[in-house]
Amino acid sequence: MEILIISGLSGGGKSKAASFLEDMGFYIVDNMPAGMILKFAEFCAAGNGRYRRVALVYDVRTADSFDEFLEVLSTLRQREYNCKLLFLQADVGAIINRYKETRRLHPLQEQSESLEDAAKREIELMAPVRAQADVVIDSTNYSTARLRSELLRLFGGGSPAGEMMVSMVSFGFKHGLPLEADLVFDVRFMPNPFYIDDLREKTGLDADVRDYVFSFHETEQFVEKLKELLHFVLPLYREEGKTVLVVAVGCTGGHHRSVAVTHALTEYIASLGYQVTENHRDMMR
Hints:
- This protein is α/β, with parallel strands linked by helices.
- The protein has two domains: 2-155, 3-Layer(aba) Sandwich (Rossmann fold); 165-280, no CATH class.
- Helices cover 42% and strands 19% of the residues.
- It is built from ten helices and nine strands.
- It has helices spanning 14-23, 34-45, 67-78, 92-102, 115-125, 127-131, 144-155, 207-213, 217-240, 257-271, and strands at 2-8, 27-29, 53-57, 82-89, 135-138, 165-172, 183-186, 244-251, 275-280.
- The strands form two sheets. It has a five-stranded parallel β-sheet, with helices on both faces.
- α2 links the parallel β2 (27-29) and β3.
- α1 crosses α7 (144-155), α4 packs across α5 and α9 crosses α10.
- 34% of the residues are buried.
- The mean pLDDT is 91.
């Protein structure tokens, strides 16, 4: 079992990190007191793999003294668990700006003369925890996307969990646009198999319909240009932090042209190594 303890400074990015790790398959527990961590670890270990990856958020709010936490951390590392401590920090200026934006109180602010004083006090208090960290991330200049990317690199474990999913959707314009679409491509300019008697009752998943649609030079040329575009933009969307990208391809009814092109693009995206799903919304209407 993998146990990741997320700790660090208030305003350092712990909440965002926990959210991203949850997307990557971790079971998240926030604000767990040190005295409960060992019992919880034993409970998870007995869960028959249900809690294979667990992340616990521990910070200054749950600590009277860090001695107990450091003892618990040492015990976890000596046992059969794969236990790591992730510490997130930022400089005082960044922490002040983040608290101003959220208009929340720093956990130590009521005991301090100012927000700056509270941030500096926390840095001193958390120093023993930081010294035990396996990984330290300074998020001062990190965008949300960069933080997600760094966590994926560190804790993704080669798993596709947390990677961007591409959802390919074919549709008919006469039934309306898919509301969730990020990118929409119109293939109504292509010759329509609907007007071929032998093809009208078939769909773009049938080989003879696909052969007909792709027998035209403009179809081949258009699809090649779409492949070039997707090859360029997919890594950019992934780096930006997008978890699901919906690409919609539409023709008039959603039976023939859009289905054939969507299927071809799905196969291409899969060949690039992305997780991809294929859905033909209006094919059976």
